[in-house]
Write a structure and sequence with these properties.
- The chain is α+β, with helices and mostly antiparallel strands and about 140 residues long.
- It has a single domain, classed as Roll (CBS-domain), CATH 3.10.580.10.
- The chain contains 7 helices and 5 strands; from the N terminus they run αββααααβαββα.
- The chain has helices at about 15-25, 45-55, 60-70, 75-80, 85-90, 105-115, 130-140; strands spanning about 30, 40-45, 95-100, 115-120, 125-130.
- The strands form 2 sheets. The chain has a 3-stranded mixed beta sheet.
- The radius of gyration is 16 Å and the shape is globular.
């Protein structure tokens, strides 16, 4: 589990979410309130859906869109979505796991819900995140 979790606030914008996911090379991150209670999650799939629904960007233009966001340039299609608030497109009802649970329980939840990341909570407060890569890494370091 990573205790240093990259998060977003529901008042953050799509532009910020894209930059955070891209710069940190992550596929999603939790959305939290000021007390670090988990409210939702934003994933690459949510961003792609947002682009599809609101911007009218053709698939061939997607990479130029991402490049323009990273470089801080404006793109006509991106202008339509850049100010959308996270609260408008985040996923609610996030599947989480309690801090005391084990790696097997995490793997089962990820498989059952077909997810790549699992926020780790104490009550509803985010304390970390575990990914499929974390599970594989942990298994790779186990002794026979």
């Amino acid at each position: 589990m990573s205790r240093k979790t990259i998060t977003l606030k529901k008042s953050d914008t799509a532009k910020k979410a894209i930059k955070i996911l891209s710069r940190n090379r992550i596929s999603g991150c939790p959305v939290v309130d000021s007390k670090n209670n988990i409210l939702g999650i934003v994933t690459q799939s949510d961003i792609v859906k947002l682009i599809d629904v609101f911007s009218g960007i053709k698939s061939g233009d997607f990479f130029s869109l991402v490049e323009s966001v990273i470089k801080g340039n404006e793109n006509a299609g991106f202008a339509k979505i850049q100010d959308k608030k996270i609260s408008e497109f985040m996923q609610g009802g996030v599947v989480t796991i309690e801090k005391e649970e084990n790696i097997s329980a995490a793997a089962k939840l990820m498989n059952r819900h077909k997810i790549d990341r699992l926020p780790v909570v104490e009550g509803n407060r985010l304390v970390g995140i575990v990914t499929k890569s974390d599970i594989v890494d942990a298994l790779g370091t186990m002794k026979k």
